[in-house]
DNA sequence: CAGTATCCACTTCGATACTG
DNA sequence: CAGTATCGAAGTGGATACTG
């Protein structure tokens, strides 16, 4: 599975340790293009708790529209992160569940959540400080 | 620092292990609102290699416009992830460097990059398979 | 060099209405 | 229940020109 954070070793000086990747973006943008939208991670986090039906997801994720729930699940399905099972009953019943790849993504997302919890306060404080010190700054 | 991915333990069944967070999004969206844009992670990854000047960043990140480089660095600065040092010389010289918080973020981002590298192929394959199996699907 | 300012194209998303 | 279709508002980023 290799979740070793080798590479971008935090360091102070201005030397060039030549990060994990030669010269490009390490491919991080690929992931963020998938997770960066408004709802994807919320769906993944919810599905990490277990299999869910369409309506269950919608109820578990307040504010998501039918349209966005559909496009989000469809994208995750298409990318092989989510498995979609249709029970051809009446009324129809569709179940969504994370695949193995999807579950590994959920673990990574948990790492993000950890970071968020650990540093949210510091960031909020920094922002308040900055705003106080730069009252009439453009483009906030 | 606590980079323990407790919580969303990957598991197969449909039971409810009650994730890391009671009911909400675990706050992951907070991070992604900051990282999800087109350039932020690229700037962070570049700064993880060492202190950079404005032009150096621009050259290191092909395609970024002056506008976006400015708003991206400004945001990171405002959030306390990046330190901005102005040398009042002529011509002016401005240096950007990650703060401690910024460096911890770089570590987390490296985790994302790891995941991306480990699963990019699987996702691309899944997508091709899906596209082949669903030729005339709407909204791709 | 290191920005700011302005305008515009494109994307993303929400609301609403309808369907098998 | 589980979607699809359509439209419009808002956000986001790129190009260009100008400045201390």
Strand and helix layout:
The structure is a homodimer of 140-residue chains.
Chain A: H1 28-35, H2 40-47, E1 52-53, H3 54-60, H4 66-78, E2 82-87, E3 93-98, H5 100-133
Chain A binds a DNA duplex (20 and 20 nucleotides) through helix 3 and helix 4.
Features of this protein?
homodimer, 140 residues, mainly alpha, Arc Repressor Mutant, subunit A, three-stranded antiparallel sheet, 5 helices, disordered N terminus, DNA-binding, DNA-binding (chains A, B), Winged helix-turn-helix transcriptional regulator (chains A, B), WH_DNA-bd_sf (chains A, B), transcription (chains A, B)
Can you give me a brief rundown of this structure?
The structure is a homodimer of 140-residue chains. The first copy, chain A, is mostly helical and 140 residues long. The first copy, chain A, has one domain (28-133): Winged helix-like DNA-binding domain superfamily/Winged helix DNA-binding domain (Arc Repressor Mutant, subunit A), CATH 1.10.10.10.
**Number of alpha- plus pi-helical segments of chain A:** 5
Q: What is the annotated CATH architecture of chain A? A: Orthogonal Bundle
DSSP E strands of chain A, number: 3
Chain pair forming the biggest interface: A-B, 76 and 76 residues
Q: How would you name the oligomeric state of the polypeptide chains in this document? A: homodimer
CATH class bucket of chain A: Mainly Alpha
Rough outline of chain A: elongated
Q: Can you tell me the CATH topology of chain A?
A: Arc Repressor Mutant, subunit A
Structural class of chain A: mainly alpha
From the N-terminal CA to the C-terminal CA of chain A, the straight-line distance is 40 Å
Keywords (chains A, B): DNA-binding, Transcription, Transcription regulation
Pfam family, one (chains A, B): HxlR
Region (Disordered) (chains A, B): 1-20
Organism (chains A, B): Saccharothrix hoggarensis
């Amino acid at each position: 599975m290799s979740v070793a954070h080798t590479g971008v070793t935090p360091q102070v000086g201005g030397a060039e340790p030549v990060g994990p990747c030669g010269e490009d973006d390490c491919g991080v943008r690929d992931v963020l293009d998938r997770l960066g939208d408004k709802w994807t991670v919320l769906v993944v986090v919810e599905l990490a708790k277990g299999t869910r039906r369409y309506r269950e997801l919608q109820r578990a994720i307040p504010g998501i529209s039918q349209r966005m729930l559909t496009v989000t699940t469809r994208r995750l399905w298409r990318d092989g992160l989510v498995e979609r099972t249709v029970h051809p009953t009446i009324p129809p019943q569709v179940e969504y569940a994370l695949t193995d790849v999807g579950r590994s993504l959920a673990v990574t997302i948990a790492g993000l959540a950890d970071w968020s919890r650990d540093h949210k306060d510091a960031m909020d404080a920094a922002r308040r400080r900055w705003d106080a010190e730069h009252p009439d700054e453009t483009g906030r």
